[in-house]
Amino acid sequence: MSDSIVPAPLRQLPWRLLFLLIGVASFGAVVLYSAAGGALTPWAASHMLRFFVFLVMAIIMARIPETTYARLALPGYIIVLGLLIGVELIGAIGGGSQRWLDLGFIRLQPSELMKLMIVLATARFYAMLPAGEIRKWTAIWPPLVLLGLPFLLVLVQPDLGTATMIAIGGVTIMFLAGIPLRLFVGAGVLGAAALPVIYSMLHDYQKKRVLIFLNPEEDALGAGYHITQSKIAIGSGGIFGKGFLNGTQSHLDYLPEGHTDFVFATMAEEWGLLGGLAIITAFVLIGRWGLNVANRANSRFGRLTAAGLSMTIFYYVMINLLMVMGLAPVVGIPLPMVSHGGTAMLNVMLCLGVLMSIDRHNRGRRGL
């Protein structure tokens, strides 16, 4: 079909990315269908419905100018910070944690939205900061306050995994903005020295997760059960997997949370190493697209935001995979567009919507 008869808004969409996202989400729905014993409910159907609703939302967001996101970055951060305070006051409690606001039609987890807003807010700060100020204290303490407030609010929910991702998102922007490397090295040394103090402040279940991560076999039927069963599921899949609907760990309920945090283990058991590599390759391609958007961006805000959001999606994938393979403590980070869950998918699609906006804005400036 000739470009002349294709509407301009359609030509401007990153179709390769969209088809890749649809492929990942569809594969996720197949895994969730199997995890439910070969049924569309309760996970697969709602998963795809949410995905397409959020995908349309991301496409609409791509039409919004990059400058609008820059103007809304700090007000949006304040709103989400207020939601986090609301969680502490009236938040719904589930699984021993207070993380959600029950809005009736959805249980909103504001901490997920903060992963996006911390990137936008810190990128906006450094975009406004004069270049000559980057090595001064005035370039350091405001972003530390921006990331420190939500970090503490999420930490007390308690949600160590999400709090860590919020901190990493802000620190990533600080690093990309040009804060001297020696400061990060010094902070790392101080952080390592403070580990005993930090450990003593953790909840008992969080301490147990750290100990079990170091030695899962110590309590294989108790606190180490998740990691042990996840390793069994992944290892039993071999290279080619046991075949669709033939998984035993998830179907016999040996694998806890096989449709959310440990969905990769459910997939690997049935689809094997090849299925795992396919998912990882897809996320690598998505990450490469995001970093290319950052490289093409013409504004400092666009470059920092695109790189920061690309890294945020990468952190989702990296932490989840390390967790399910027993290479990191269990911290409750889902696998984007594969795990069942509304707020996490919403956040990732919001990130992609902003990325598509930056990409469209810069292609438009080049006259493409």
Tell me the helix content.
Answer: 55-70%
Class based on secondary structure composition and strand pairing: mainly alpha
* Helix-strand sequence: HHHHEEEHHHHHHHHHH
Q: What proportion strand?
A: under 5%
Can you walk through the features of this model?
This protein is mainly α. A hairpin with a 2-residue loop joins β1 (92-94) and β2. The chain has 14 helices and 3 strands. The two termini are 18 Å apart. It has one domain. Helices cover 67% and strands 3% of the residues. The protein has a 3-stranded antiparallel β-sheet, with helices on one face.
Provide the fold topology.
Layout: H1 8-11, H2 15-35, H3 44-62, H4 66-90, E1 92-94, E2 97-102, E3 107-108, H5 110-128, H6 141-155, H7 160-177, H8 181-193, H9 195-201, H10 204-214, H11 225-237, H12 263-296, H13 300-324, H14 342-365
Antiparallel strand pairs: 1-2, 2-3
Helix pairs in contact: 2-3, 2-12, 3-14, 4-5, 4-6, 5-6, 5-7, 5-13, 5-14, 6-7, 7-13, 11-12, 12-13, 12-14, 13-14
Give a summary of the structure in a few sentences.
The chain is an all-alpha fold and 368 residues long.
